[in-house]
Amino acid sequence: MLDALSPAPVLLPALADHGFLFATGIENSAPTILGPDGSRIRRDQMIECRHYDRWRDDLLLTREIGCNALRYGPQLYSTMRESGRHDWSFADESFPELRRLGILPIVDLCHFGVPDFIGDFQNPDFPALFADYAREFAARFPWVQLYTPVNEMFITAVFSAKYGWWNERRTDDRSYVTAIRNVVRANVLAMRAILEVRPDAVFIQSESTEHFHPECPRALPHAEHRNAERFLTLDLNYGRRVCSSMYEYLMDNGMPREEYAFFMRGRELRRHCVMGNDWYITNEHLINGEGHCRRADEVFGYDTVTRDYYARYGLPIMHTETNMDEGPRGDEAERWLWKQWSGIMRLRQEGLPMLGFTWYSLNDQIDWHSALREKRGDVHPRGLYDLDRNIRNVGRAYKRLIEAWTPVLQSEGHLTGLRASA
């Protein structure tokens, strides 16, 4: 059931000129991991995938394939040098070129990692420092309208402070709730800071869309908990009251009541928000009687799980991430692309306000089969282009898809369904 107190979206004027958003992204994950010698290692995918060396080529390839939008942003850890001191030199080169090429940036300001001087997502100073950073970016590039302040807030907290893979590498509930508090607070404060500069800014929350299936009757309470937990970051971000079990979980693990009230006062920001959801074959999980999860592959699929999220939040939707390895036959990624697109078209036909689609990322990625935890240098063929910037089969398929559907969506009006949600 939709929250009856939700403010109505007013995104129609803000997005009408952009058309349906066919996007890709430059992979800019930058968490820290534990190296073999016990030291912290920074995994900067923009370095490992050679974007800094080939950034002009990458922007041209984005336009060549037909995308009108690009998920992109400066690296937080290298741009934020210290409190109040930011080095915008790379952004000062790349963002004017994006504008010259007519590519709409969806600016990704924090992608899984923070500067060394902040440390990790347990640091309570992070939200205010990040808000200052976001405000300065918006003032420096006032023509930018679309933002993802913190990418995948749920995954950021889970991988850093629940699974113990990245950054603080913790596995206890109190650290996990602390990471959620700081990550979502940073996102909320950044949205408010950007709106001070650009009052018509739109925020596309790129968030992992998840579902947990019980393997047996004993798994039912575990699945119920995890299926409530998956909404925590978006509930707090959108000012939606969490269920009673999640409220107890937050309170028992260190969230002050006044901080919960802070999040509940954020409802007014919803009118600037698009619910971006990310979908991979790993997003559905099978949970056993002991509460342990393993991969379920696709059971429900993108469109079914997205309906659950839309029923909860009632916001316009953008499919903000997906990919698939090419596989031994070389066509698995292309088949996955068309499967995702079919899900979007089905939701659109049902009247859901689907604003865009993203194949992530433009180029192949490094070491994502281990979620960046092992620095092996393994290349995974998930991009529209390989790391030599040669187009892949899925890149050709995406280009055909964009060419075929752009005139259809323009003639129909890409915002079909938005009026119903407003």
Strand-helix topology:
Layout: H1 11-15, E1 21-25, E2 32-34, E3 40-42, H2 45-48, H3 51-65, E4 69-72, H4 76-79, E5 80-82, E6 85-86, H5 89-101, E7 104-110, H6 126-140, E8 146-150, H7 153-161, H8 173-197, E9 202-208, E10 211-214, H9 220-229, H10 232-238, H11 244-252, H12 257-264, E11 273-278, E12 284-287, E13 293-295, H13 302-313, E14 317-321, H14 332-349, E15 354-359, E16 365-366, E17 379-380, H15 393-412, H16 418-421
Parallel strand pairs: 1-4, 1-15, 4-7, 7-8, 8-9, 9-11, 10-12, 11-14, 14-15
Antiparallel strand pairs: 2-3, 5-6, 12-13, 16-17
Helix pairs in contact: 3-5, 6-8, 7-8, 8-10, 14-15
Structure in words:
The chain has 422 residues and is α/β, with parallel strands linked by helices. It contains 16 helices and 17 strands. The chain has a single domain, classed as Glycosidases (TIM Barrel). Strand 14, helix 14 and strand 15 form a beta-alpha-beta unit. The longest helix is centred in the middle third of the chain and has 25 residues. The N terminus and C terminus are likely disordered. The strands form 5 sheets. It has an 8-stranded parallel β-barrel with strand order 1-4-7-8-9-11-14-15, surrounded by 5 helices. Strands 10-12-13 form a 3-stranded mixed β-sheet. It comes from Paracraurococcus lichenis. Pfam families: Glyco_hydro_1. This is Family 1 glycosylhydrolase.
